[in-house]
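Technical annex, item 7. During the second reporting period the consortium partners agreed on a shared format for inverse folding records so that results from different sites could be compared directly. Each record opens with the tokenized structure and is followed by the designed sequence. A conforming record, contributed by the partner at site C, is shown below for reference.
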């Protein structure tokens, strides 16, 4: 198991990279304007098989004391993309640092697409 190992009087505490990725993904989706995470083919297959991938659209590099995060997301149409991205960066950094004690050195946000309201698409489709 890879991840961060914390010394303790009773033994080692290990935080898996997957745990850091899940924290980052959940923190990113809390931000208004983020429609979803972009997981690519592997994420789509996992969801089709009925497993929700909580780290979908997240890539982390975790060292002994630092972490770098790449987030791939879909934003909602009509939102100001730079504002959404900055909010995501701040929320992800805060969540990882407070929950794991790691210092987050980078949160790279990759906007992969725009989500349009489903309601409009349904209204425009002739029946």
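Designed sequence (site C submission):
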């Amino acid at each position: 198991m890879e991840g961060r190992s914390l010394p303790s009087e009773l033994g080692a505490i290990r935080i898996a990279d997957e745990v850091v990725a899940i924290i980052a993904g959940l923190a990113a989706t809390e931000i208004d304007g983020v429609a979803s995470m972009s997981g690519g083919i592997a994420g789509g297959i996992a969801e089709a098989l009925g497993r929700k991938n909580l780290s979908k659209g997240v890539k982390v590099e975790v060292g002994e004391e630092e972490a770098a995060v790449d987030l791939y997301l879909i934003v909602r149409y009509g939102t100001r993309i730079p504002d959404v991205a900055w909010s995501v960066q701040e929320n992800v950094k805060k969540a990882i640092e407070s929950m794991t004690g790691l210092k987050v050195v980078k949160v790279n946000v990759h906007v992969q697409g725009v989500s349009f309201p489903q309601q409009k698409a349904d209204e425009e489709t002739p029946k």
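Helices lie at 17-29, 40-48, 81-100, 118-124. Confidence is low (pLDDT under 50) at residues 41-46. All partners now use this format for quarterly exchanges.
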